[in-house]
Amino acid sequence: MNKKSQNKFLLIIIGFIIFYTILIKSDSTSLPGISKEVNSISKRTITSEAIINKIHEKEDLITMEIELSDKVMLNDSWGEFNIFRKITYINFYSKSIYSIDLSKVQKKNISIDNKDKTIKITVPKPNIKSINIDEKKTSYETKMGALRFGEIKLTPAENQILITKVKERMYEKLNEPSILNKALYNTEKSLKNLVQLLLNNNNCCNYSISVHFN
After folding, report:
1. How many CB atoms lie within 10 A of CB 77?
2. How do strand 208-213 and strand 139-144 relate by DSSP bridges?
3. What are 87's strand-pairing partners?
4. pTM listed for this prediction
5. Where are the alpha helices (DSSP H) in the chain?
6. φ, ψ dihedrals at 26, nearest 5°
7. d(CA 74, CA 83)
8. How does pLDDT run across 103-143, given as a tens digit for each residue?
9. What single-letter DSSP state applies at residue 125?
10. Alpha-carbon distance 160 to 201, whole Å?
11. Are the CB atoms for 39 and 30 separated by under 8 Å?
12. How many of the other CB atoms lie within 10 Å of CB of 170?
């Protein structure tokens, strides 16, 4: 190959490199039809659908667990004399759970203002999900007069009725305003943390999150 041909071949190689760098390689840095600026901005915004999808992963969000106790008195005394007294005290303990059903959260329940950096979420009030009696902690104390003997025994049916009554009393306790307000506070805190985690994962910072109950 003479020197003239070598120079021509070299120019072709240089031209191909320039063409590849400018036209082909530059296009591969962003999605088709999306500029670099739009592509980077999309990572700093959040949508209602994204929040709903994240929330629905949880379904039931447990927001508070509380321990309760209740004492029941069984009286099998004969009259008012202490020598004929027979009383058994039963101490019940439970772990009760509050939760909200996140599957009920829809797009209309979430309002996002990307300009003012605010997110408003409306969710159901927390409900008492369960009251679980811890049978291992149940304790008994019997006080008997000098002329009384034996323990007060309950049939399985009577014991079931007793536990039902205890749960009803615990349910009333859990619906007292002071406990309900604490459940609302914990629910608001838990939901804010959940949404904030989603925002952090999507590089969306400095959003103000407010939670409301319906």
Report:
1. 16
2. unpaired
3. 75, 143
4. 0.66
5. 3-19, 36-41, 48-56, 156-174, 177-201
6. -65, -35
7. 17
8. 888 888 989 888 888 999 999 999 999 999 998 999 999 88
9. P
10. 49
11. yes
12. 20
